[in-house]
Amino acid sequence: MTTILLVDDDKSLVRALSIGLGAFGYLVEVATNGVEAITSAARVLPDLLLVDLGLPELSGIEVITAIRAWSDVPIIVLSARPQEAVKVAALDAGADDYLTKPFGINELLARIRASLRRSSRADEESVVRAGELTIDLAARLVLRGDVAVHLTPKEWGALAVLVRNRGRLVSQQALLEQVWGPGYSGESEYLRTLFSRLRKKLENDPASPVHLITEPGVGYRFEIGAVIAE
């Protein structure tokens, strides 16, 4: 079932869209503020986001920017702001589409289908191999040889960030904010514990990792030396 994360603090709209989208076979998860949106995106790993711009705590633009740092998930903005400058800002931040309120459910459904089709085509090129590891970003699947590796949502979130940025250093702060959410940027011990578990699951010699590399005091990177993207 396709999962949609709906990010809006308008209770009546959330209720109407949850019922309407559910009637067409979508599973709807809800976040009512910007911080919750980022945390839920890392936890739920939805197939598509619907994001209002006028959110409490963090704006929709900030939510889009944060999620785009680690995910290519389709994002459609739902906003009452019709100004061209606002639309441009949202699209520049990483939104895929922009729908002005009020809108009809049929138009929203059509835009959802179009965004998912585009995402599906992009996902065909989302398989990355590193030694005996096969990482399918679209399917959220990791194989070690022919064996599927079970990862927790946060383990997958951190791995996906590094693989999407393979070969580049990702700071501790960026990882913490993208995987745990704003407010966790100082919790470096979370990362040490998480990467210790990941290395045990993915590395042949966890004490001398080949793929999951730590830059002490700075961040982490996914080593691209043995990585081939399809």
Briefly, what is this?
The protein is α/β, with parallel strands linked by helices and 230 residues long.
Beta fraction of the residues?
A: 15-25%
Summed up, the helix count is: 8
User: What is the CATH H-level superfamily of the largest domain?
Assistant: Response regulator
| Straight-line N-to-C gap | 26 Å
Over the alpha carbons, how many angstroms does the gyration radius reach? 18 Å
Class computed from helices, strands and strand pairing: alpha/beta
Largest sheet: 5 strands, parallel
Order of helices and strands: EHEHEHEHEHEEEEHEHHEEE
- CATH top level class name of the largest domain: Alpha Beta
Strand order of the largest sheet: 2-1-3-4-5
Mean pLDDT: 86
